[in-house]
Design goal:
The complex is a heterodimer of chains A (1006) and B (471). Chain A has 1006 residues and is mainly β. Chain A has a 22-stranded antiparallel barrel. In chain A, strands 10-15-16-13-14 form a 5-stranded mixed beta sheet. Chain A has a 4-stranded antiparallel beta sheet with strand order 3-2-5-6, with no helix packed on it. Chain A is globular. Helices cover 48% and strands 6% of the residues of chain B. In chain B, the strands form 4 sheets. Chain B has a two-stranded antiparallel sheet. Chain B has a two-stranded antiparallel sheet with strand order 3-7. A two-stranded antiparallel sheet of chain B has the order 5-6. The chains are: A mainly beta (1006), B mainly alpha (471).
């Protein structure tokens, strides 16, 4: 490594020399009405020599003597090239445009002009990311990009979010896209180890983001090679712009509530529960009419006069606030952007909250005409409290459904009720008490930064070196009090888990752009580089028990008995040597592009370290053809076609190795055991993708959009191939099978009305993906994975399920169909065959649409998201709606109202039998609901105060608004028990409720 | 122009040098090793390594789905000793109802945990290292544990040997091979394998350290039990007599009985316990431990069937480790289990082979050949549990019944009862404490056996068509 650093320094010093003579050009940039355009970019074509205009639209630029052309561009205007000739004054008039045809798009390892874009790329601008009531930017992306599926099963602030671009491509390797921030791949997902759900992206303040590019097809992602298979999300943070220093201040406050609740699935009250239980105990033969009340009294608190609503008492109105300040400016040499933010959100469930402090600084300095250096840095500290989820006794959501209404959280004197008979040892926990005393906290500290330099070796040849750090420290504390709950039996316990992931990435790249041919009709771009990346994980656990009899001291040091004190780690190294790209542009009409990259990963066996990834693509900008010059219909017409191979190595760091692990200890002496069979032949998963696309804009850009068709074939899929349990191991990592995703993506933007004072924008996006497994393990017809079945010809998340056939009116028995023919039914669960074709947990289609109305200073925006064609599982329904299963737990209203009671009843639920009626509670289609929904993701009414008014008090912008998020939800299935958004696997898990949020906000600029 | 060219050359050279430098070290750069694991070769290289791996075997059989909880619970719950109280945490509900589905998680867990532990044993037994007493001891322990695991599997998943030795047993896996797709061997073959392992283990092992590790006499006692289950009365008696005469182990006295159950540590004094699976303050199953589901300070789901509790005389020292609930208590009326008292820090061990078992095996094996001896063995155990009880004088079937009743009382909540009922081909007749639909389980009821897990059928074509009837 040291050798490398020295070489780099030598390189930088050698090339960091002064440059030849220059001259000065000045000018003014205005719009068609003669109004000055501030902040327009003025650059010498083919170089990075440039500046921006001031508030009066004026620029002054020292250009090299050799410079021929100035390129002038600004957001929302059509760019212009002006020949310099011998002039020293150049004025430009830019024509307005609505679809930003000439804007620059952030692509892999750089930026590209729109006509040059060959791949499928969607761009999201800062306006739709800023000041949203979401804890992380991934949640904000929902519905914004065609083909980007975003779903989170938990409403916990700071919860993990599932993202899929163009479907599932892998089985055991990850399906999440790669995130790149300011040129550096970063770690995303949930890195916590003791916390129910967490999200590394929650430390990144969305207000610090300038733009996001979603790279979808193989050409767009291929430069990321082995990490591009699942798509790439490229984030560019806000950078400085030369000119007067500008300040912004944004704030938003509000509250949240449960977004979706089905009244049929609220907990039954005491009278209803005892009505059921009386019937169930007698039906089960456990009690008779004579002793049933006594049994209920001694076991379930019957007759104690309590009727406590646990759901109401474990939920609340969550408060929400955020403040962001920003400062942006600079001069010809140095530009900067500095910002700070604070964000706080309370979950709707008790013991659930989130708080973030963030700061960012971006600097860019031109040492001389050729040489510039830059820094990007982003710091975030996010602290959250997250309650348990799923079946944990300490989960407040579980307790709100499972605890009996006869168990009051408080004693008559107002103190907490934490003792027998209601809350004796081993009982469900009084989560209202544990929420007050116990601690389940996570603090995530992230630093994401890059430093680097750019040197222009000759005109058009640029060398960039960039060293990036992605540093994440997670500190998790857990404390369980000694009096009640998980800590009771061990007299209190506490945990501290420390997790650190440090990743450095070093990228070096030569980028050469050259106009060729006599008339310079051809533009050649070559990129050549290499990249090395190493990720180090460090994990330390501390746990102790035996705490003093109070709840004030909560750290492990206080505990008398140490249980865990561990330190381990996990490392990953990765190189791309080289990566390269070649593209040729003819008059902006035809662009062809090809790339190649060779990646090595430490995750694979010695013989399979390397993988080769490449792409080819072309685009035809028909609107730039001569024959299109005189037509008035098309403002843009562009065809794109690409093909490429990317890879996926997103598996465990040591999966290829045969391992004997330590830690199987006995009598406190060390023990070892085989933990991994290993597979020396394990190698890259490949992803071959075709993409055909068309971009268009017509009627003076009033209607524009794009359409893409893709076909992604994953081969050599990395799979934790299940082994027969008799081998002694559960699975082995293998390259097994093939899977294909085919789909279409459509984006349409329409501006139905555009006048001086009134504008109406509509944007609609739609994606449809069909996933199909082509091949699974050799010699296997099907593979089961939980509730799913993998079978050639079918979707990856096809649910393997017995089909519910209703209730036998004669005796109240549960019935299932014997097989897929649905001709016969049985009351024997084991005798019913599972359907292999019932349906999938994956939506068939999803998307979003947006309406924005602007009248003078007033804006009204509404964004809807929708998704459909899938099934959602009520994972815990077998308990609260299981016809008696888990008889000692609470039941929902629907179980009470729709149960079979007498012969002849046509009921939804079978006869209620205490502790279960013939396995009615077991997984069947009874516990599946259609997942189709339409949701008002965002509605905002805002008012921009007139400039004339605010300029008097020295302000440049004042905007006030009221916003609602998730305020309205329409579902197709009226029996859907839980929120339709349950993560990409569509299985509910008694998580913190998904919120709807109401906020008011203020944006100031000065 | 020349200047420009030299710049290009310099840039390209720099890049090439950097690339070359990097490529030179990239092999090491990409060779990253785990922090807590070794290769199997490195982990099993020496005799001390094998001892560490053997420790891993014992940790493996402590799994909740094995001797840590499921094996002892099912051994009583599938019989008539304990039931799931209506107020419960919903664990083992299907066994209370005897309506186990084919995809039952506890049945699947026991199967995979057992074969995982068998794999741990196999890797030790198959180690090329040989020749020292220490290695023999380690391999002998592994063989004895492997025998115990197959004995457990064959009794839960296959018909009793007494029914038919040629009926389907369980797959015999003796080497680590992820491509192996075994069919079920016959019950007879599985028993032969068990006895082969136990015979070798008895010879291999020379050291007794404590009751939490396998040793010669534990292997011999297990052999007695296996032979009794196989109806080989002479063989069972020979093995049991060997243990009684030569091992030095004794049956706990009435006076020490209460303290015997209160202790959470393994024994070195050769009193009562031949073999048990140890849990300590750090290595334990926590909320999923046996004690937690039987003790009222834990989940307390499992309680004793009322008629069984009524059979204990007041002078029986065993009665004191059960407790009749009183009015106002949660779960009243019920008989609570207090056999496993340590559910907080150092948890109770799971007793798997006890001296009283050896005596009762000797008694049962002697009934036909020498009724007096049989009475003596039985009365010895009784005298150390209820000294004031009159000695048993019955013979023939009445004597067998008395021995079985004594077993039921002696091994309550230790997972013995269901296996006795199966090997004796008796119907399970449960009390009114159980759900009405599950009070009389005929010997022929297919739910008397566990389902082979679906995961096995999904991945192992060799076992196709060999599911137990009724699933």
């Amino acid at each position: 490594m040291r050798k490398l650093t020295v070489m780099l320094l030598v390189c930088l010093i050698t090339i960091g020399q002064a440059w030849a003579q220059t001259r000065t050009v000045t000018g003014k940039v205005t719009d068609e009405n003669g109004a000055p355009i501030a902040g327009a970019s003025v650059t010498v074509k083919g170089t990075n020599v440039g500046t921006t205009t001031d508030d009066a639209g004026v620029f002054k630029l020292d250009v090299p003597a050799t410079a021929k052309t100035l390129t002038i561009s600004s957001v929302n205007y059509r760019g212009q090239d002006l020949a310099i000739g011998s002039r020293t004054t150049l004025d430009a008039v830019l024509a307005a445009q609505s679809s930003n045809l000439d804007e620059v798009v952030v692509t892999a390892y750089g930026t590209t002009k729109k006509p040059d874009v060959v791949g499928s790329i969607a761009k999201v601008n800062s306006e739709v990311l800023e000041n949203r009531p979401f804890t992380s930017v991934d949640k904000t992306l929902q519905g914004q990009v065609a083909g980007l599926q975003v779903s989170s099963g938990s409403g916990q602030p700071g919860a993990a979010t599932d993202i899929r671009i163009r479907g599932f491509s892998s089985i055991s390797a990850g399906n999440a896209p790669l995130w790149v921030v300011d040129g550096i791949p970063i770690l995303t997902g949930d890195a916590s180890r003791l916390t129910t759900t967490a999200n590394l992206l929650s430390t990144l303040n969305p207000n610090d983001i300038e733009s996001i590019s979603v790279l979808k097809d193989a050409q767009a992602t291929s430069l990321y090679g082995s990490r591009g298979a699942n798509g790439v999300i490229v984030v560019t943070t806000k950078s400085g712009k030369a000119g007067k220093t500008k300040f912004t201040f944004d704030t938003e406050v509000g509250y949240s509530d449960i977004a979706y609740q089905n009244p049929d699935y609220t907990p039954a009250n005491a009278a209803q529960y005892f009505e059921l239980t009386r019937e169930g105990l007698i039906n089960a033969g456990i009690a008779n009419a004579g002793n049933v009340d006594a049994i209920m009294a001694s076991n379930f608190g019957f007759g104690n006069g309590q009727d406590f609503n646990w759901l109401e008492n474990t939920t609340r109105r969550g408060q929400q606030q955020q403040y962001n300040i920003g400062m942006n400016g600079g001069n010809d040499k140095t530009t900067f952007n500095l910002s700070g933010g604070y964000f706080r959100q309370e979950g709707i469930t008790i013991q659930s909250n989130f708080e973030r402090f963030s700061a960012a600084l971006n600097l860019r300095h031109k040492i001389n005409k050729k040489f510039s250096v830059f820094l990007t840095s982003n710091l975030g500290v996010a602290e959250q409290q997250a309650p348990l989820a799923g079946g944990a006794f300490g989960n407040p959501v579980l307790s709100s459904y499972f605890l009996l209404p006869s168990r009051n959280a408080y004693k008559p004197d107002g103190s907490f009720n934490i003792t027998a008979p209601d809350f004796g040892p081993g009982s469900l926990h009084n989560t209202i008490y544990t929420a007050a005393t116990d601690k389940r906290s996570l603090r995530q500290n992230s630093i994401r930064g890059t430093i680097g330099g750019e040197y222009e070796i000759i005109d058009g040849l640029k060398f960039t070196t960039r060293y990036g750090i992605d540093y994440n420290v997670l500190e998790e504390d857990q404390y369980n009090n000694p009096f009640h709950g998980d800590g009771f039996n061990v007299s209190g316990r506490a945990f501290f888990y420390y997790t650190r992931y440090t990743t450095w990435t070093w990228t070096n790249m030569l980028d050469y752009t050259k106009a060729l041919g006599k008339a310079e009709d051809f533009t050649l771009n070559v990129k050549l580089g290499y990249e090395a990346n190493k990720s180090t994980g460090i994990f330390s656990n501390v746990q102790s028990q035996g705490f003093p009899p109070n709840t004030a001291l909560i750290v492990p040091s206080v505990g008398a008995s140490p249980i865990q004190s561990t330190r381990t780690g996990s490392d990953y190294a990765f190189v791309a040597a080289p990566f390269s790209l070649l593209s040729v542009n003819y008059k902006d009409r035809y662009v062809i592009s090809g790339s190649y990259r060779r990646d090595g990963s430490s995750r694979f066996g010695e013989n399979n370290i390397w993988g080769d990834f490449w792409s080819v693509g072309g685009t035809w900008n028909i609107d730039r053809e001569g024959f299109m010059e005189n037509q008035r219909i098309f403002d843009q017409l562009k065809l794109r076609a690409t093909y490429g191979v990317t890879g996926n190595a997103n598996i465990g760091n040591y999966d290829a190795r045969a391992l004997y692990g330590y830690g199987a200890n006995y009598n406190q002496t060390t023990g070892s055991t085989i933990t991994n069979a290993g597979n020396p032949n394990l190698t890259w998963e490949n992803n071959e993708q075709y993409n055909f696309g068309i971009d268009f804009a017509i009627l003076k850009n009033r209607i524009s959009g794009s359409f893409d068709y893709y076909n992604r074939l994953s081969t050599d899929i990395l799979l934790n191939e299940p082994l027969p349990p008799t081998t002694g191991l559960g699975s082995v990592s293998n390259n097994v099978g093939e899977m294909v995703n085919k789909g279409v993506e459509l984006l349409v933007n329409v501006v139905p009305v555009q006048t001086r004072d009134f504008k109406w924008d509509i944007s609609f996006n739609y994606a449809r993906n069909k996933n199909e497994i082509k091949k699974i393990a050799t010699g296997q017809e099907q593979t089961l994975n939980g509730i799913y079945i993998w079978r050639p010809g079918y979707d990856y998340q096809t649910i393997f399920v017995r089909q519910w056939a209703g209730v036998d009116p004669a005796n109240g028995d549960p019935l299932w169909y014997v097989d897929d023919t649905k001709t016969a039914t049985t009351n024997n669960y084991n005798a019913a065959q599972r359907s292999r074709e019932f349906g999938s947990a994956t939506p068939k289609y999803f998307g979003g649409f947006t309406n924005n109305l602007t009248f003078k200073g007033i804006t009204l925006g509404a964004q809807f998201v929708y998704s459909g064609g899938n099934y959602v599982r009520d994972s815990w329904g077998g308990f609260y709606a299981g016809s008696g299963n888990g008889g000692a737990f609470g039941k929902v209203v629907r179980q009470v109202n729709e149960r079979w009671r007498n012969p002849g009843d046509n009921a939804t639920f079978p006869k209620y039998v205490y502790n279960g009626n013939k396995l009615a509670q077991n997984f069947s289609t009874f516990y599946l609901n259609k997942g189709d929904y339409l949701r008002l993701r965002d509605i905002t009414l805002g008012y921009n105060l007139p400039k004339s008014l605010i300029s008097k008090i020295g302000l440049t912008n004042v905007n006030i608004y009221a916003r609602g998020a998730n305020v309205w939800t329409l579902v197709k299935d009226k029996n859907l028990p839980w929120d339709p958004e349950q993560g990409v696997d569509a299985q509910s898990n008694l998580d913190v409720f998904i919120p709807k949020t109401y906020t008011i906000g203020l944006n100031l600029g000065f | 122009m020349k200047y420009i060219q030299s710049k290009i050359v310099l840039g390209v050279m720099t890049a090439s040098v950097m690339l070359a430098t990097f490529t030179g070290c990239k092999k090491e750069f990409l060779d990253l090793r785990p922090y807590t694991s070794l290769t199997p070769q490195d982990a099993l290289a020496t005799e001390p390594d094998l001892r560490v791996a053997m420790t891993g075997v014992y940790a493996g059989i402590r799994a909740t789905n094995l001797f840590g909880r499921t094996v002892p619970v099912l051994g009583d719950l599938m019989g008539d000793n304990i039931y799931q109280h209506p107020q419960n945490s919903n664990r083992y509900t299907q066994y209370n109802l005897m309506t186990m589905p084919v995809n039952d998680g506890d049945a699947a867990g026991m199967w995979s945990s057992a074969y995982n532990a068998i794999l741990r044993c196999n890797n030790i037994i198959n180690s090329p290292l040989t020749g020292t007493p220490g290695l023999n001891q380690i391999k002998g322990e592994a063989k004895a544990v492997r025998a115990l695991l197959y004995f457990t599997l064959v009794r839960f998943y296959a018909k009793p040997y007494n029914e038919s030795p040629s009926s389907l047993g369980v797959p015999i896996v003796l080497t680590f091979d992820i491509t192996f797709k075994p069919a079920r061997s016959t019950v007879g073959e599985v028993y032969d394998q068990i006895l082969k392992d136990l015979g070798e283990a008895y010879t291999d092992m020379t050291t007794f350290t404590n009751s939490s590790l396998m040793h010669k006499w534990a292997a011999r006692a297990l052999e007695a039990k296996v032979r009794l289950t196989r109806n080989d009365m002479a063989g069972a008696l020979t093995a049991a007599n060997d243990v009684i005469a030569n091992s030095g182990f004794t049956v706990a006295s009435a006076a020490s009985y209460g303290a015997y159950w209160g202790s959470a540590t393994f024994r070195t004094d050769k009193v009562e316990t031949l073999f048990e699976v140890s849990s300590d303050a750090v290595g334990n199953n926590g909320f999923d431990a046996l004690g937690y589901i039987t003790n009222q300070l834990g989940y307390g789901d499992m309680v004793v069937s009322d008629p069984l509790f009524a059979m204990f005389t007041d002078t029986d020292v065993r009665k004191a480790i059960y407790r009749q609930s009183t009015a106002g208590q949660t779960r009243h009326p019920a008989v609570f289990i207090e056999k496993f008292k340590n559910i907080a820090t150092d948890r109770d061990e799971t007793k798997l082979l006890r001296m009283s078992d050896v005596y009762l095996i000797a008694a049962e094996a002697s009934v036909a050949s020498n009724a007096t001896n049989a009475q003596n063995f039985l009365n010895y155990v009784i005298s150390r549990r209820d000294p004031s009880q009159a000695p048993v004088v019955e013979t023939g079937q009445a004597l067998v019944d008395a021995i079985i009743m004594e077993r039921r009382k002696e091994f309550l909540v230790e997972g013995d009862r269901y296996h006795d009922l199966n090997r004796l081909k008796l119907s399970v007749e449960r009390s009114t404490n159980y759900p009405a639909s599950a009070r009389s389980i005929a010997y022929t009821n297919p739910k008397r056996l566990l389902p082979i897990p679906e995961a096995e059928f999904n991945t192992n074509p060799g076992i196709a068509g060999q599911q137990n009837p009724g699933y």
